[in-house]
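Narrative summary of target 7.
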Amino acid sequence: MTESLLAARTGQIQLTVFREIAALAAQHKAINLAGGTPDFPAPAVVKQAAAQAIEADLNQYALSHGVKELREGIAARIQQEHRISVDPDTEITVCCGSTEAMTAALLAVINPGDEVIIIEPAFTIYAPGVILAGGRPVPVKLEAPEFKLDSGLLEQVVSSRTKAVIFNCPHNPTGRVFSKEEVAGVAEVCLKYNLVALTDEIYDEIFFDGLAPVRLWALPGMRERTILINGLSKTYSITGWRLGYVIAPPVFTQAIKITHNYLSLSAPAPLQTAAVTAVCLPQSYYEELRRTYQERRDLLLAGLNRLGFSCLRPEGSYFIIARFDQFSRQDDLAFARLLVKQVGVAAVPVSGFYTQPESKDRSFLRFAFCKQAETLVAALERLQQLVS
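Modeled conformation, tokenized:
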């Protein structure tokens, strides 16, 4: 009886399997390489700024679209890195994390029945966000083991109902930094069919071997049709602060300010004030960030390969996907459970990043290396049980 009172959209969305893995990891005291949560401190100067903001009583509502100094700092970072001017008043909205930023953006542009192309495997908020906005997710699969992006496959699924494409680079979960040709292919499809591009750049400062990501919004003709989603969680190791933002042309931003206002009103005022310190850190901070993450990547990658996993070398983000079928013929969820219970290491099944059962590749796990070196070494020592 009461089930009939629920909105139909809730029946189309399930909570991710990652919650089960996290609970199992806690229960079995496993080393958790499943979630993208750093186990090392945020920058001291940023934490001090938060404490000072709270002590200064900046504890009431902030402007709905964000503290002015933070929006100005974000715009300054874009100018510094890309020589592109962004108006902090008419083109930036600060949200409660990049998840809310994506949801606000989708609610601002998607009408009931609109189709949104999602490149899979994909971060797990995209398809539910589309559904909550009344749209229909349309997956396009990256083919293992290289997970390259074929724009021809994007074009094949375009219909009269297609409204947008969600693009993520550096890519979660694969760690790909898509080539200039791959990104240009996405731009070509958007321009040809008059599509909106929603680009998730949460890992934009984390890339390796000098392979900086090509920005979709910086390509000719794309600035006016791209909604850029980003946040501070990954770059500054403050995932619990829930600070994200949207950069978009004024016509989109005006609508996004409305949807954001009625989703969360405003992001936390003292943390926004502290984040001004974060986005104004010197260039040396970002260089050191990439250097230390590359060291962690190389440590975990070498260890997994040595044990016999077949890994895709990540070019960005802080994840490694590893094929495990040389150890087991089980599917990825069953093997992930086994690793937690019997080995004491948690990783997430990559099948959880797909929306359609027939598309799922069930022979990969995703390992996170946003951890201290000691944590990674301990995890590799436990994984040695697989070959002992």
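The radius of gyration is 21 Å.
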